[in-house]
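Hi there,

I know you've been waiting on this one. I reran it after we fixed the sequence typo, so this is the corrected version. Both the input and the resulting structure follow.
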Amino acid sequence: MTMYQEGYKMYLEKCEQYGLEPVNFRYYVIQLSQDQLNAYNEKAQQSKGY
């Protein structure tokens, strides 16, 4: 879940940079593609040493 929160934080920064209204965290996660979810999960496993 921490990986998703880091991605969301970056998303919030970009929204602020471009003057866009961000969606809430729950909607952000729901809208991630399967490829994005797989990439997050792979990175999380690598960081845990699996």
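Quick highlight: DSSP finds three helices and no strands in the chain.

Best,
R. S.
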